């Protein structure tokens, strides 16, 4: 098959997939909103699926990352509310890894041009240093570790860079795992009506968000300097970076 025909077919398939995803999301949106309208509704739905409950919960987490505009913290708190801190964190982490892997490898091997054009249209300010792997790694870690910030789009962005998948998923887990556990703990303590503990964790999360947002630039510069120091001690061959040229 000629290269241009193959590219046309890929774009057509991506377009159809996008339309199908939007259509399914709109069709099922009322049911999703009803299920997620309260912790009790979500728990009742998960329990109603019987032995499939953990799989359904993981699918909700995957859906939240890949498609649906559901805040990640809602699912994470619900995990603790339904299963407790330990099991809830475990299921949420599995969903996080699977959902992020789908988004990451889809973008890297199939939808690179589609996502690249989408980012160009949005003109995000931080795309100016997307080609600087050390600075972008620091940015990813800071963004992941600050609670409350929308993080899922960055999975697609990271796939456009030359960053290795091992490096990306390490940053993802190290940055997000503490707050996954904290969110599950909030859900668990709410379920057990230990509201004092839930309030303390929530206050810490809010303070972390405010401080992280206020000092994000300084933190990013600090981590960038650490990365540069490591880079000088172990020089590596430069990698070819992806192009963002319009086609």
TrEMBL record:
It is a multi-pass membrane protein. It is found in: Cell membrane. InterPro entries: TMEM64, VTT_dom. The chain crosses the membrane at residues 12-31, 51-70, 82-106, 136-161, 168-190, 196-215. Keywords: Cell membrane, Membrane, Transmembrane, Transmembrane helix. Residues 70-188 form the VTT domain. It comes from the Bacteria. The keyword Cytoplasm does not apply. Belongs to the TVP38/TMEM64 family. This is TVP38/TMEM64 family membrane protein. It comes from Paenibacillus vandeheii. The lineage of its organism: Bacteria, Bacillati, Bacillota, Bacilli, Bacillales.
